[in-house]
Amino acid sequence: MNDSFKTTLAFIGGAAIGATLGILLAPDKGSDTRKKILSKAQDFADDVTDAAKQKYNDLLHRKDELMAQAEEELASATKRKV
Q: Does the predicted TM-score (pTM) go above 0.90?
């Protein structure tokens, strides 16, 4: 994992923990608190999913770049040998 991805996950995790603590310390009914925690947990899961999808797409793009580069180098090497 690169540093920006780790930083993003750390930020998202910190925000989720902070939001959860804020909810737990708020003077609401238990059922309201549970609903808020569930909502924040879902938001966190969505954020992590989005970050993972972005990283996956970045890796696919990089793979495509490397494959194109390898094909060009192979074609060039083949022309030199012929």
A: no
